[in-house]
Amino acid sequence: MSDKPQVCAEEDCDRPAAVRLFVPWADDRDVCTAHGRALVQQPGVVAMPLEDGPDEWQ
Asked: Looking at the 3D structure of the chain, how many domains does it have?
């Protein structure tokens, strides 16, 4: 396991990944808290906090 935190999968975002999004029409991806909170509002998108992610998602 790497000591470097995983970064958000969204373009031009360098924040640490906090949640894995399961998106029915696209690939699953790990994103930061801000992107996770916005994207999970879409119908069918499910979010799961990452074990090693920041605590603020929960």
From this structure: 1
